[in-house]
Structures are given as C-alpha cells and as structure tokens.
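Progress report, Aim 2. The chain analyzed during this reporting quarter is listed below.
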Amino acid sequence: MGLGWIGYVTALEKLPASTVGVLYMTYPVFTLVIAWAVFADAPTRRALLAAGLIVVAAVIAGSPASVPAEHLPTLLLSLAAPFGFGFGICVLVHRLSRIAPLARIASVSLGSVLGLAPLILGAEVGELLPGEQSDWLLIVGIGLVTAFVPQLIYTICSPVIGASQTAVVGSIELPTMFAVGFLAFGETITLPQALACALVLGAIAITRSRKTRTVSAVLAKSPKQ
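Predicted structure tokens for the chain:
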C-alpha cells in the first residue's frame, strides 16, 4: 500500500487532481478482480453492478480532463494506489482474519511505513515536523479520530462482510467528502456531485455479501494455505 501511495502522489505532480481521484475510486473493481483471481472469491452480479456504479459516480463527480499522451505512463503509475488498496482489502479479509485486530492494523501500517520510507528519508526535517507546538495536538487528534479508530472498525468488520462489500461500502468516502465540504467549509454541492452521491448510495444499497458471516465464524475459520 505504501508503494501505491507513492504512485498516487507522483501522479498528482503531473496530472489533474480530479483525474487521479477518479482513478483511485476504481479500487472496488480491483478488489473484485483480485479476490476472484487470487482468492477464488467470485463476485456476485450485484457486486459487479455496484462497482460499475461507483466508477461512473467518480467520473461524474471528478469530470476528469483529457490526459496528454506523454502523461499516460504517469496515469498508469497512479493505478498502483487503487490496486494496492484493493489487494490490501483482499488480504485483510482472506488472510488476516485469524489474528487480532490491532495486529492487523500493525501489519498494514508497517507495509505503508516501509513503502513511504524513501520519501521520508529524502525529505528535509523541517518538512516533516510541525512548526508550532499546538500542531502536535492536531496530529494526535487526526491520528486517533481519522486513522486509528476508523481503521480498528474497518479491520474488525471487513472479514465479516467480505471483500466485495467492504470495497463498495468504503466508497461512501466520496459523498462524505462532499458533506464535509458543505458543512465545514460552506462549499456548494453541485448537481453532478449530488448525482454521484446518489449512485454511490445506490451501489451500497444493492450490494450483498455472498453469505452471512459472524465475527465468531470468521475467527474460527482457518485461512487457506
């Protein structure tokens, strides 16, 4: 996942943010393909339809600009982010369900740290450390409220609902961004954004897990060797 974010950040240096953002929202498609090809978890028709709706919603919301031919390699590089995230979801659901949730978070975070280490080592110290003492409180708050707690919930629930539904439900981040912009920054929600929100919510509504599972059932099931 760390390498995926490197590709994502690199793409942002040359491509419009809307284009890169739209490509990132293709991760439900990568999740379905990887789950099917690597873990023999065939997607349902509902999951395929939901993934398609999410991609359409992202395109409508982002209105990506046309990419010049010389930037096509960078465009392909940016796909490392949705691929890495989709692969991470599949591994979390199919391989890490037997270990404790905190250990799952640690394993995923370790991969991100190792992948991002080259960027950290190549940056100036002043770029990494907060300038004001009060900024440390903001960092702690961000770490707990937007990272640790959501990731803990995510790692507990993902093996229960399965890879495809995890990816589709996770796409709620798109309408969430619009809601935060409206409530916190007074940004106007445009008609394309409202339509994109409706498509994402529709995708979440139609998707279903292939079978009902409980936390105890997931923990009792040994991963395939």
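Residues 165 and 203 are 10 Å apart (CA to CA). Residues 2-120+134-220 form one domain. These observations will guide the mutagenesis work planned for the next reporting period.
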